[in-house]
Amino acid sequence: MPAGIATLLGPELRYGLVNEAMQELLGSPTPTGEPLAKHPGRLAADLLEVMQQVYSSGRPYVAKAYAVPFPGSEKGTPTKRYFDLALEPLTDDHNEPQGLLLFAVDVTGQEEARQRAHELSLETRRLDARLRVLTETAPQITFSVDAQGQYEYVSPQWYYFTGQPPKADLNAIWPLLIHPDDRLRVLYQADAAREAGIGWSFEYRMRRHDGQYRWMLSRALPELHAPNKPVFWHGAVTEVHDQRELAEALRRGETELRFLADSIPQLIWTATAEGFIDYYNQHSADYTGLSGQELGPTGWVALLDPTEQAAAARRWVQCVASGEEYEGLYRMRRHDGQYRWHIIRARQLADSRGPRWFGACTDVDDQHRLRQVLQTQYDELARTNRDLDTFVYTASHDLKQPLFNLRGLFDELRRTATFQDPEQEVLLEMVDDALRQLDRTLQELAATVQDQRELTAPTEELNLQSVVEEVLLGLRTQVQEAQAELELDLTAAPTLLYGRANLRSVLHNLLSNALKFAHPDRPAHIRVTSSLSATGNAQLLVQDNGLGMELRHGPSPAFQLFERQNPQVAGAGVGLYLVQRILDSGGGHLEVTSTVGQGTTFVVHWFE
Predict the structure, then answer these.
(1) 151 and 101 share a domain?
(2) Measuring CA to CA, which of 11, 36, 277, 527 is 20 to 30 A from 582?
(3) Residue 526 carries which DSSP code?
(4) Transferase: is it a keyword of this entry (predicted)?
(5) For the whole prediction, is pTM greater than 0.70?
């Protein structure tokens, strides 16, 4: 028999009959008449104890899948074999215990299969729990549908999204939540996919818990059973409302941009990262008389004047390689064969789709020719202006000598000649004043020409404190004569980016005027402070307590050349005109407030 059989006799359970299969199980000699405890073989002590209890109680017992260690290979670990062991008491005719019948059936294959099945069951439950956690925590609605379209499972996200109770009838409610305009299409496509045994992927609008319809993407694949017949469809529903609206906005934006590009009277084009043009607007075709296909990937280069094509192409290749902006002024051929000046600009845009180039060719032929004409006229005017300056400067310089001669003759006349006129001294004093006035006028003319030549002086960062002190050092005689008190506070805006000669001229004229027009009844008090305007630009305040003046044109008067505010004080009326000219040339202006008899305040706005 393939099963092991042994009889164990007496209370000592001595070996009786032992067949070959049992001998293999025990793995050791089983001498007849010897007790089992002395030769247990591979049987463990707990089994021997159970045998004694079965013998004493007379109740049979079956040990299922009892593990018995068997030696493995020479270096291998022991292996286990499993046996169903039946312990049956042996009794005599008077039902007295005589021994035990040991019956062993090898069930190793069945037990190992059962253990593997158990392990697979545990692994399946673990994977099922993991899959459920993944599906229920993912931001998607997962579902399973059978071949008849009945929902077998849906993840909790569906209830969160729709606001339906957990006991809701999915098959009845789900179709009602689909937008009426999409419902028939969705039901038809799902039925057609199940009939064909294939998966599906389509978009539709589903009503959310707040009543708003949101675009959803539904995808599912079939679960195939033998013979390749789908039984279930498993899938997911993902909200794509924002992405769809963004895509629609992008599509509308691209359409509007293309319409805008076609409406612009410029040659608009785009190019790939390699510099090959892949789009031309409608004006490009209208201007060149060529279609986008005829223009090709390097169309604008071929339209340039042949003498400029090589340089323009080299520059374009360099910009494509480095990513630098492209800009150049070239002559481009129109559909009638005429070459017109164009500014060609291109910039690179890098985004998630990779780098691309956007360019434009702007016709500036009329402006270019007008600029050439204006430049010619400007050069002519500049030359004329220089000639006038030279003439005024030369004339003022050359007139000094006759003035000196007149002065000498007048002094000699006063010394030697006598007049029988009671107002002789008054007349002589009037002539003397006229000569002095002529002398000052000639000096002011020369200074004005010199200052105007310096209006284009280069700018540099200047320290206001040092320049003011330098100007005051040159005016120290006037300061002493006027007994002037000076108050300087230039900490708020201590520096100024300006031309040194222009700054000195502005400060000199304002400070010298404050000293010249000091009130005779009180010492002069002059305050010079710097500050920042509301827009953050530097400004300067020069305030005095002098004679003041009448302003006929408000706080921003236009001072004219040789216009004098106080005729009783000697002067040529050039200083404020020159200050105004210097400020206007630098983009600034002069603001004035004054009260006759109390003083004047000048606010110099350097750049606004």
Answers:
(1) no
(2) 527
(3) E
(4) yes
(5) no
